[in-house]
Amino acid sequence: MEYSKIVKKECPMCGKTYFVKLTEVEYDQYKKYIAYGSLIQNALSNTSPTVREFLKTGYCPDCQKLLFGKCEQKELFFSYDDIREDVTKEFCERHENILDALTSDDADVLTEEEWLLLMYEF
Questions:
Q1: Segment 3-25 mean pLDDT
Q2: Where are the domains of the chain?
Q3: 21 φ/ψ angles, rounded to the nearest 5 degrees
Q4: For residue 40, how many other CB atoms are within 10 A of its CB?
Q5: What local confidence, expressed as pLDDT, does residue 78 receive?
Q6: Mean pLDDT, rounded, for 53-63
Q7: How confident is the model at residue 59, as a pLDDT?
Q8: CB count, 10 Å around CB of 46?
C-alpha cells in the first residue's frame, strides 16, 4: 500500500501537531466524509479505528492509548519531532523548485515522512 497523502491535526488533548499517512483512496474517502458527512466508520470502512479517530477528533495515537487503552497502526503517524530539520532545510535551500526536486534523485536523502511533509507544504 502506498501512502501518498497526509492529514495534519493538532491533538486537543496534548496540543502536539501530528500527521497521518493515507492512501489516495483513503484521502478521497476522507474528503467526501468532510464534504458530505456520514458515519466515519462507513465512510472509511477499511481504515483502522485509530486513524479514523484521529481524522474525526484529532486525538493523536499516544492520547488515544491513554483514552481507550489501545492504538493501532501507530507507524502511520508522525509529528514534527520526526522530521530532521537540518536535512529538510538544506534540501529546500539547494533547490529553487521544491516540487521538481522531490521527484529527482536528490530526494533520496529524505525520509518518507519528510518527503510527504514537503509535498504537503509545497
A1: 96
A2: 5-79, 83-121
A3: -85, 135
A4: 19
A5: 96
A6: 96
A7: 97
A8: 8
